[in-house]
Amino acid sequence: MKAIPSVNNTVYFVEEAYQKLNDCLATNCFSKVFILVDTQTQINCLPQFLPLLQTNITIEVIEIDSGEQNKNLQTCKGVWEALADLGADRKSLLINLGGGVVTDLGGFVASTYQRGIAYINIPTSLLAMVDASIGGKTGIDLGNLKNQIGVINDAKMVLIDPKFLATLPANQMRSGLAEMLKHGLIADKNYWKKMTDLSQLNLTHLNELIYRSIEIKNEIISDDLFEDGIRKTLNFGHTLGHAIEAHYLNQSNENVLHGEAVAAGMIMAAFLSHKLTQFPKEDLEELSKVIKKYFGTLSIKEEDVPEILDLLKHDKKNSHGKVLFVLLSQIAQPQIDCKIPKNLLKEAFTFYRQV
Questions:
Q1: How many angstroms separate the most distant Cα atoms in the chain?
Q2: 93 with 65, same domain?
Q3: Is the pTM of this model over 0.90?
Q4: Distance between CA atoms of residues 173 and 213, nearest Å
Q5: Are residue 291 and residue 249 in the same domain, yes or no?
Q6: Residue (of 210, 177, 165) closest to 44 by Cα position
Q7: How far apart are CA 335 and CA 318, in angstroms?
Q8: Which of 145, 168, 191 is the last residue of a domain?
Q9: Looking at residue 319, what is its pLDDT?
């Protein structure tokens, strides 16, 4: 697959990715190389990855606990301290080998350690491949509030190797699928149509879909790196999705993945689009049917809704105290900065439960 140039770096694929990584190690005079993994990628991905490195530079591995609940300042502190204890300096390189938690947190750690060291993202989950690792957004959660602390700072490069997906459980694959569905809904009707039926999916088709998803995200961020305009469309389904995810992070006995929450958020955003921006009823029905086919329905009780809606006040797209949504007028025709009447937000949850 052909490399995809982005604003400040390039996304490389499969064999070329490792060649470019080794070229980078050979030409940049890094003092040390640090590889950030979590407890899952330490076991499932690191043994495949280490033999592909061709360098005499000292390599150190730093491990964090896996899971969104560990994407916090305490974990960052542990990684910063490990870097310091192991002699990292401003010429060190951090390689983030993992899913969205590792690439988000690792990018933030690298961007702030000694005012910034270079980092490379090697995403190992579908969600990280098509979304989290690309575009320079780094960050951590503040309590149960998603991605409240962070900076936009691009990785030196992003390397995509779909063979890492063989290590993923089915629910993690579905989590990434939500972002791919979103890319079709906001930017490419033909891509959305391909995503509506994956019953005949094979590895070649999956690689092509991943590639197109990365292309879509890259086209958007290349036009708007700092989210002043069109990049906001990437938040379709995320306003309510993040609030739902944050709500479930508060529930110690339940776990909802990012993609599962965003899937629910997209159905609700489509309902709001039908009510406010003339999104066609037949498209709303198809969108709801497709997403529920892959994700089912979250058990959001009526008594949970006020808390979820209260969490909307922390959304990063808010401006001047107003909660702003991304809606659709047609598939691949998004509208940004849409204000929503509170009564319609409650109706969206009712629609989601009943559709």
A1: 62
A2: yes
A3: yes
A4: 14
A5: yes
A6: 165
A7: 15
A8: 168
A9: 72
Among 168, 184, 201, residue at a domain's last position: 168
Total domains in the chain come to 2
In this structure, what are the phi and psi dihedrals at residue 231, rounded to the nearest 5 degrees?
A: -60, -25
**Mean pLDDT, 10 residues at a time, over the chain (355 residues)?**
94 96 97 98 97 97 96 98 98 98 98 98 97 96 94 98 93 94 98 89 88 97 94 97 92 82 98 98 98 95 94 82 93 97 95 95
Same domain, yes or no: 164 and 238: no
Separation of CA 218 from chain center: 13
Cα(70)–Cα(78) distance, integer angstroms: 11
Could you give phi then psi for residue 217, rounded to 5 degrees? -60, -40
Q: Are residues 156 and 198 in the same domain?
A: no
CATH code, domain with 333: 1.20.1090.10
pLDDT of amino acid 253 = 60
C-alpha span between 336 and 317 (Å, rounded): 10
Q: Is 336 in the same domain as 314?
A: yes
Residue type, 63: E
Euclidean distance between CA atoms 146 and 303, whole angstroms: 22
List Cβ neighbours of 300 (8 Å cut-off, separation of 6 or more). Answer: 244, 264, 308, 349, 352, 353
272-284 per-position pLDDT tens digit:
999 999 999 999 9
- Residues 221, 155, single domain; the answer is no
Instruction: Return the pLDDT at 252.
Output: 61
Range of the domain at 301: 171-354
Question: Domain check: are 253 and 109 in the same one?
Answer: no
